[in-house]
């Protein structure tokens, strides 16, 4: 049983998709106390700058999609935390203040 995972960065107000790991971006998560640091690699300059410009209005979603099992969604709220982009490396770092984990199948049964 294999597990897939994907990442989405969206504009919280309009729901517009800003970044998706389906576009070939790679990412890593790390914990720093109560905060979650999300590092996204390979972000094009225009997209990275746009995400930084909208940093107070971001939602980040991580979907765990186990083969044969229910999807687990993680919603990360950024709030007033730092969002930094390095154009030279294409590295975007989003710091989130909270995480909500849920399984959509539990809401529909």
UniProtKB/TrEMBL annotation:
Source organism, top-level taxon: Bacteria
Name of the protein described by the UniProt record: Uncharacterized protein
């Amino acid at each position: 049983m294999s597990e897939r995972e994907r990442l989405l960065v969206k504009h919280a107000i309009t729901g517009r998709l800003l970044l998706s790991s389906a576009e070939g971006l790679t990412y890593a998560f790390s914990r720093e106390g109560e905060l979650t640091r999300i590092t996204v690699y390979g972000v094009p300059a225009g997209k990275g700058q746009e995400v930084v410009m909208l940093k107070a209005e971001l939602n980040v979603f991580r979907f765990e999609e186990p083969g044969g099992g229910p999807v687990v969604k993680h919603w990360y709220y950024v709030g007033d935390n730092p969002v930094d982009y390095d154009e030279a490396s294409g590295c975007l770092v989003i710091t989130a203040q909270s995480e909500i984990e849920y399984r959509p199948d539990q809401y529909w049964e």
